[in-house]
Amino acid sequence: MNDNIKTAMVGTPCQILAATKINKYSEKTGGSSIDIKIGLFCMENFSYTYLKKFLTEKDININDVEGFRIEENKFKVLLKNNDMFTVPLSETDSFKRKNCDICLDYTSDISDISIGSLGSPKGWSTVIIRTEKGKEIIENAENEGYFETKEISDKGKKIIEKIASKKIEKNLENINVREKVSRPVLYTRNISDEEIEDISSKCQFDNLESDVISEGACVLCGACEYVCPIGIVEIDDRKPQKFGECKEDCHACYYACPRTFLSKNVLGYNFKAKPLGEYIDIISVRSNKIKGQDGAAVTSILMYLLEKNLVDNVSIVGEDEEISWKPVSRLTNDVEEVKKAAGTKYSTVPIGFKALE
Q1: Lowest-confidence pick of 123-132, 167-176, 180-189, 261-270
Q2: Residues 292 and 146: beta-carbon distance below 8 Å
Q3: How would residue 2 be classed by pLDDT, with cut points 50, 70 and 90?
Q4: In whole numbers, what is the pLDDT of the chain averaged over residues?
């Protein structure tokens, strides 16, 4: 890894956690160039294969889809002919990824900046500023005219807290059900770094497979693939697989995985007590640079970071050029490519760890 390279990463809560663990345990994982973490609000994510199957069963060709939205507890499919297909969010269970059932983080609590639409007026994004680094970025970008901001209303904040708490309560129930018939869900075990060192220093990919992958807890973030020092772990639209023998005394994948044990130094508070995590401020943001989904806050921030040379590249999720709505993660330093990739992709994709310097 080139220590001089700086990357801004955009990701879901589990992906942000993976990036955090990769750098926290850099002596074991090799670290990464991720310097700024922009987290997304996330209730759940979807399987591309089963989303496409669901649409087919509803006589919708995915090539005819203009966009997807989740609003008012409904899953909305916007078609290119301006029609809209809407179903209750509960009907998405057939294509929801089951590992989402054990996630307790709605607002990407350990990022520098968290962004979503919930809680802000239409046409605005909600931004949770969590670190001093995040605060400086938001203040300077606003001063440079990239967007305008306003304080979020008390009602808006309560809505976010309500939804975050609902996710936590529902998924704690799911965790209890799982643990009655199977093994413990490790990442809910908040332990010390000393305990993590003692456990993880004995674990390799086979342990990761039995503790996380086979238990249906893998989030397909790509961290295990990225940190493997001999390149024998691969993810190809399916669960991570190992092709070969692990390097002796290598425990990188177990340290990096967001679904193994969670250090008290990474997340030292109770989810139920602080459903939005630790933060400095919550505001609403509307871009002055681009018109996009909600307030286009993510795109505006990435544009600012690149144009002011604060990072060397940013992670984005675009679409496969040949497969409609198939998400593809990559790094770029091209502002126009960032603009083109704007908008939420409603299928899971391994984040572009492999492309990092």
Answers
A1: 261-270
A2: no
A3: low
A4: 92
Is-above-0.90 flag for pTM?
yes
Q: Residue 116 pLDDT > 80, yes or no?
A: yes
Residue 52's domain spans which residues?
Answer: 46-96
Mean pLDDT, rounded, for 213-226: 94
| pLDDT tens column, 137-161 | 999 999 999 999 999 999 999 999 9
Kindly report the CA angle at 339 between 337 and 343, in degrees rounded to 5? 115
The tally of domains found in the chain comes to: 2
Residues 50 and 39 in one domain: no
> Is 13 in contact with 102 (CB distance < 8 Å)?
no
Q: How far apart are CA 249 and CA 243, in angstroms?
A: 17
The answer to whether 141 touches 147, Cβ cutoff 8 Å, is yes
Task: Give the span between the Cα atoms of 354 and 85, in whole angstroms.
Answer: 36
- For residues 51 and 160, membership in a common domain is answered with no
User: Do 117 and 107 contact (CB within 8 A), yes or no?
Assistant: no
Residue for token pair 């238990």: 215
Distance of CA 280 to the CA centre of its chain: 21
- Where among 96, 117, 136 does a domain terminate? 96
Task: Round to whole Å and give the CA distance between 33 and 308.
Answer: 18
Instruction: Assess whether 89 and 236 both reside in one domain.
Output: no
> Is 181 in the same domain as 306?
yes
Query: How far apart are alpha carbons 279 and 160 in whole angstroms?
Result: 14
Dihedral sign for Cα atoms in the order 140, 146, 151, 155? negative
